[in-house]
TrEMBL record:
This is Circularly permuted type 2 ATP-grasp protein. It comes from Pseudomarimonas arenosa. Pfam families: CP_ATPgrasp_2 (PF14403). Residues 63-439 form the Circularly permuted ATP-grasp type domain. InterPro entries: ATP-dep_Glu-Cys_Ligase-2, CP_ATPgrasp_2, UCP005522. Gene3D superfamilies: 3.30.1490.270, 3.40.50.11290.
Length: 463
C-alpha cells in the first residue's frame, strides 16, 4: 500500500491513528525511539567503512500490518517450504535421490562449496538440518507473495523483530489497546523448546544448551547476547568450550559442564579447525566429531548452507513436489541461471531491467540493480558476468508493493520485504510476523541494513 492508494482493510486502524496524532508527534516519538535503542544497546556493525562502525539501524515508527487470513496463507507456505528444504538437505547427505532422479543437477550440489562431504551419512535428530530458517519474501500485489531467498545457515535479525515490538509498546501503548496484534515476545521460548527437542540421542537428562558466538566484534553480537539471555543459556566463545572423547564441555567456575545442544552463530568454515579452516581461532577442535558421535547437536547443522545457495534456490519448487508430493504454496521469483549460455545471453542483453546477484553473496553486496545502475556500472558488471557466469543469477525487478513510512518529509511510500523465522525440531514453530526491512532511500529496492536500509514492527492482526 502506497500513499494515495485506497486504504487496505488491515491498515484502517493505523490510518485513523495517524490522522489523530498531532503533527509533530511522530517527530518527537522518533527521537524517543532512538534514545531507547541506544539505551538498549542494539547496534549493527559495518566493517567495510571507515570510522566508528557501530550504528543504529534506522527504525520506522509506522508498523507494517498483515491480516490474519493473509498470515495464515503465508504460514502454511513457509511450513511447506522449510519441510522440503530439510528433506532436501537430508537427502543430499544420504541417498541423493533427487540428484539421481535428475530433478537437481549433480554438479550444482557436489561441486558446491556449501556441500560438506563430511556430513554424508550423518543422521540428525528428526532429520532436521536447518533448525532456524529466515525466508525473505516480498509482496507484489493483493495476496501475491514471492520468496526472494532462503537463509538456512545462520539467519540474523530476530532480535530486531523483538526489540521493535518492545519499543512500539513503550511509545504507543494506546494503539495496542485498540488493535488486536498477535504477540511475538514468546519467540525465545519457542526457540528454546526447538533446541531442547533436537537433543542428541546420547543426552542424559535435561539437555544443556549454549549459544556459540564469534565474539564482540561480530556484526550480530548484540543478537547473540540478547537471545542467550532471553533463553537463559550460556553465551560462549570458542575458548569457552572443549571437546574430550567426542563430548563437548563448557568451562565454568564449577568445572566442566557437558553441552548437548549448541546454537552456533559461526559459519561452517570456522567452526572446527580439525575439519575445516585449521587457522580458525573462532571454533572448537572436535565439534564435528562430537556431533558425528551423537553426543552433540549443532543448530544449524554443518552443511545446511547448501539450501540457501542462490542457484539451488531455483529448484526449491521442484523439491516441494519431489519430497512432499504437493504444489508449492509460495512462488519463487523467476530466475535466470547465468551459467547456462542462453540465459547468460538474455541477461547481458537486459542488464538494464534485471537484478543480478552473486550466488554466494549476502548483505546486498555483489549485486547489480540494473534499472538504478549507470551505463558504466552495467558495462563493468557485464565484464564480470562473462568471466564468471556460474557465480551469478538474475531476476526481474518486481513491482514491489510499498508501505507507508515516516521519513524526513513526512509519510511516504517505501519498498519493504519480510523475513519470517521458521523453527524446526520435533515440530515447526513460527511466531506471527517477522522482521520487516525497509528500503529507506526513495525508489530503492535494497533493504539490507548494511546498505542503508531500516526496519519496522510487523503486526499480524488476530481478528
Amino acid at each position: 500500500m502506497g500513499l494515495g492508494e485506497a486504504i487496505r482493510p488491515p491498515y484502517a486502524l493505523i490510518d485513523a491513528w495517524l490522522k489523530a496524532l498531532p503533527a509533530d508527534q511522530l517527530h518527537h516519538k522518533r527521537a524517543e525511539a532512538e534514545v531507547l535503542f541506544r539505551r538498549i544497546g542494539i547496534t549493527f556493525a559495518v566493517y567495510t567503512e571507515g570510522g566508528d562502525p557501530e550504528r543504529l539501524i534506522p527504525f520506522d515508527l509506522v508498523p507494517r500490518v498483515l491480516a490474519q487470513a493473509e498470515w495464515q496463507r503465508l504460514k502454511r507456505g513457509l511450513e511447506q517450504r522449510v519441510r522440503a528444504l530439510n528433506a532436501f538437505i537430508h537427502d543430499i547427505y544420504h541417498g541423493q535421490e533427487i540428484l539421481r532422479a535428475g530433478k537437481v543437477p549433480k554438479e550444482l550440489i557436489l561441486h558446491n562449496p556449501q556441500f560438506r562431504p563430511e556430513m554424508v551419512g550423518q543422521d540428525l535428530p528428526h532429520n532436521v538440518y536447518t533448525h532456524i530458517a529466515g525466508v525473505d519474501m516480498v509482496r507484489t500485489g493483493p495476496d501475491e507473495y514471492y520468496v526472494l531467498e532462503d537463509n538456512c545457515r545462520t539467519p540474523s535479525g530476530v532480535s530486531y523483530m523483538l526489540e521493535n515490538r518492545e519499543v512500539m509498546l513503550r511509545l504507543f501503548p494506546e494503539i495496542f489497546r485498540k488493535a488486536r496484534v498477535a504477540p511475538v515476545a514468546h519467540y525465545p521460548d519457542e526457540l528454546l523448546e526447538t533446541l531442547r527437542s533436537v537433543a542428541p540421542r546420547n543426552c542424559e537428562g535435561e539437555p544443556k544448551m549454549a549459544l556459540l558466538t564469534p565474539g564482540i566484534y561480530n556484526s550480530a553480537y548484540y543478537e547473540h547476547a540478547f537471545l542467550a539471555d532471553e533463553m537463559g543459556i550460556g553465551l560462549v566463545e570458542g575458548q569457552d568450550l572443549l571437546v574430550q572423547d567426542d563430548i563437548c564441555y563448557m568451562r565454568t567456575t564449577r568445572g566442566l559442564e557437558r553441552i548437548d545442544v549448541l546454537y552456533r552463530r559461526i559459519d561452517d568454515d570456522y567452526l572446527d579447525p580439525l575439519v575445516f579452516k585449521p587457522e580458525s581461532m573462532l571454533g572448537v577442535p572436535g565439534l564435528h566429531y562430537a556431533s558425528c558421535a551423537g553426543n552433540l547437536t549443532l543448530c544449524n547443522a554443518i552443511g545446511a548452507g547448501i539450501a540457501d545457495d542462490k542457484a539451488v534456490y531455483i529448484y526449491v519448487p521442484e523439491m516441494v513436489r519431489f519430497y512432499l508430493g504437493e504444489e508449492p504454496l509460495l512462488q519463487n521469483v523467476p530466475t535466470h541461471d547465468c551459467k547456462k549460455p542462453d540465459e547468460l545471453a538474455y541477461v547481458l542483453e537486459h542488464l538494464d531491467e534485471l537484478v543480478v546477484k552473486a550466488v554466494h553473496g549476502s548483505g546486498g553486496y555483489g549485486m547489480l540493480v540494473g534499472p538504478h545502475a549507470s551505463q558504466a556500472e552495467r558495462q563493468e558488471f557485464a565484464r564480470v558476468l562473462k568471466a564468471r557466469p556460474q557465480d551469478y543469477i538474475a531476476q526481474p525487478t518486481l513491482a514491489l508493493s510499498t508501505v507507508p513510512c515516516y521519513v524526513e518529509s513526512g509519510l511516504a511510500p517505501r519498498h519493504v520485504d519480510l523475513r519470517p523465522f521458521v523453527l524446526s525440531g520435533d515440530q515447526i514453530r513460527i511466531v506471527p510476523g517477522g522482521l520487516t526491512r525497509v528500503a529507506l532511500k526513495e525508489g530503492s529496492l535494497v533493504v539490507n541494513s548494511s546498505q542503508g536500509g531500516g526496519t519496522k514492527d510487523t503486526w499480524v492482526l488476530e481478528g
